[in-house]
């Protein structure tokens, strides 16, 4: 794994929710990490790998050991890679795309459906500052299930056991045990107990 100048300081700033000005040293470190992420995800997606090899590559991508119970069906993309954390028994189906600079935490036993998009950055609204980025962590609880083509916006938390229906765009927090669908996602029920 290549050493990325300023990565630790960048992660500290991102995890504190600090804005990253365009053209700053943090911005440069972010781009360097993105290049490493592109290299590793190209390796994941470019040929067949055993589940153990996939976990090894995902550990390299995230910079931390991915649990042995983690499963990924490629292809997968992350445009940063260093701010993703997986609990035990997490499953990512094919086509998932993570923008993880702001941080993505996925709790144990969660199932993330085909083509899920999880975003953690917003660009500044002012055209003169549009290159500035504002991070916001996404937290997905334990035992959460995403249908296919779910999109989660920056700063959202999804409670334990929740179900996010196919095609939903999650713009605000989802309570534990809720079933949400639609654009924007709205609660339509609760997960049965048992």
UniProtKB/TrEMBL annotation:
GO terms for molecular function: O-acyltransferase activity. Pfam families: Hexapep, Hexapep_2. Keywords: Transferase. InterPro entries: Hexapep, Hexapeptide_acetyltransf, Trimer_LpxA-like_sf. Belongs to the transferase hexapeptide repeat family. PANTHER family: ACETYLTRANSFERASE C18B11.09C-RELATED, SIALIC ACID SYNTHASE-RELATED. This is Acetyltransferase. It comes from Arthrobacter alpinus.
């Amino acid at each position: 794994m290549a050493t990325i100048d300023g990565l630790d300081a960048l992660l500290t700033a991102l995890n504190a929710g600090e804005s990253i000005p365009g053209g700053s040293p943090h911005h440069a470190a972010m781009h360097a990490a993105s290049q490493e992420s592109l290299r590793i995800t190209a390796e994941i997606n470019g040929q067949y790998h055993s589940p153990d090899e996939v976990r090894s590559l995902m550990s390299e991508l995230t910079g931390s050991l991915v649990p042995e119970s983690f499963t990924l069906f490629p292809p997968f993309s992350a445009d940063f890679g260093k701010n993703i954390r997986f609990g035990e028994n997490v499953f990512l189906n094919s086509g998932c795309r993570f923008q993880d600079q702001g941080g993505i935490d996925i709790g144990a036993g969660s199932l993330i459906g085909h083509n899920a998009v999880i975003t953690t950055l917003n660009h500044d609204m002012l055209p003169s500052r549009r290159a500035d980025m504002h991070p916001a962590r996404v937290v997905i609880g334990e035992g959460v299930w995403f249908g296919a083509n779910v999109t989660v916006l920056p700063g959202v938390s999804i409670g334990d056991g929740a179900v996010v229906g196919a095609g939903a765009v999650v713009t605000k927090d989802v309570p534990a045990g809720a079933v949400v669908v639609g654009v924007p996602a709205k609660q339509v029920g609760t997960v049965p107990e048992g």
